[in-house]
Amino acid sequence: MSQLAELQKTFCDALLSPEPPPERLLSELVDDGLALQRFNVYRNNFIVLNGDALADMYPVIKRLIGDEAFRVLATAYVRQHPPQERALLLYGDQFPHFLATLPELSGLPYLADVARIEFAWTDAYHAEEHHRLTEEQVAAIPSEALGQCQLLPHPTLHCIRSDYPIHAIWQANQRCDSNETISLDQGESHLIILRPQHDVEVREVIRGAFHFIKQLQAGISIDLAYEFASQLDSTFDPTLFLSQHLFDGTFYQIKQQPRRLLKQELKRQ
Amino acid sequence: MDEAITSLRSAPALVPSRAGAGLKAVHYQTIIDNQPDIGWFEVHPENYMGRGGAPLRYLERIRADYPISLHSVGTSLGSHQPLDQNHLRNLKKLVDRFQPGLVSEHLSWSHGYEWFTHDLIPLIYNQEVLDLVVSHIQQVQDYLQRQILIENPSSYLQFKQSDIPEQEFLVEAAKRSGAGLLLDVNNVYVSCRNHNWDIEEYLAPIPAELIGEIHLAGHAVQALGDQELLIDDHGSPICTAVWELYRNCIDRIGSVPTLIERDSNIPGFDTLYKEVQFAEHYLQSSREACRVSTR
């Protein structure tokens, strides 16, 4: 390793570590008696800049646990998961999982799921543009073949299920001054997050619709997706659902499936 | 969106020798609605490297009315590692799409190991690193098929192995690579104060013709033992001493595109606009003084 490579690696290790920098790094710095404090400016900047990026992505988590607790968690996260990309746009993708694994947060079991909404929101915000499904695309397919078609949910769409009323929690915390109380007894929620055109939408859907969309996302036919969804939610009415959502941006493409793929799928079922 | 695409690049690409402002997401709508009289806007390309969405749509819209400058923070010119081709590709895509009048990057590194600091870390100023930086600047310019400007950094520490003064390193890097310089007047002030360098000595060897852009920003003051360290946080108004230094600079080098940079504690657009007008006023006086003296 060249001298420069070694110095840059030592510098990076010291930025990441909560321990004081090693002597072999300090001995490289011009010493006016304040070399340690001067280095610490960089370590502090590194933690604060990346922690701020995390705070931008997770404003609701910050509101729920408070600024100080968020800063502590962000510092730990930045040290465990330093940025892997040059752009910070999607920095923090591991944060929901990180929150889920912290024993200190076990009293806030919904937190990681709320964080998943916030990540999905940002991911959809920066996603590539895709048109929504049009009536012409559907009209081009003979009606008797529709059931065997692949109906593809919008590429920006994320599906999130939680045991807790995370949609209500997320919504109540869109404003700083909200002090609404939400009972966790409201139970599970099923959300889809997507950006059909300009704006990201967070929608709560019924359980059957959620699993129907999730199955369609995996690429199986409309008929099979319905079969699966109706087993989990007998009240799910696909005709009603599609009459409301087929052209509202939930979907972006419909494809006639090749016979061969269908057979493979039937075997899997 | 479609409307923005059809009207794209109705504004010229060339960044004029006027005052510009850093473009912030919170100001997008105000700028589109009010069309303020500002020479140009600057963005960090890394904030527009998503696959789509609102930031690119807004930039497209604003580019229709204003020239823009791309001020990169992610190339890591001083890394011992090779440049990231993927990042260069993303940068080139933005250059092709938005036709910026200026493209710039910092004299620093942010990728020293397997991950990114997202902070601008200073270099060792010696011959070996100079050769490396020159080669990296040339690679970026070859890839983008255009000249870039290199910005003098703000710094809080120095390496013992440095044996070339920062200003000479910058000038040499620019001359050898064919790049221009982005003179950040606040950074000059911050680094000179932090390292007890003489501001006059710092500025004297920098040839006016190399300077393609000026940056102005605010800084914070941090107590460090019984000394003070200036922190370049772009989070407060530009201080009087930096305005004074700026005026001296443009008296010497003439009017150059000047950016008001603000990256944290972002104020309402009106507050930022006042600083832009202040710089604009200096630039105009400098142009008038220049006309008088050449008469």
UniProtKB/TrEMBL annotation, chain B:
Signal peptide: none annotated. Belongs to the UPF0276 family. HAMAP family: UPF0276 (MF_00697). Gene3D superfamilies: Divalent-metal-dependent TIM barrel enzymes. This is UPF0276 protein FHK82_03255. It comes from Sedimenticola thiotaurini. Transmembrane segments: none annotated. It holds the Pfam family MbnB_TglH_ChrH. It comes from the Bacteria.
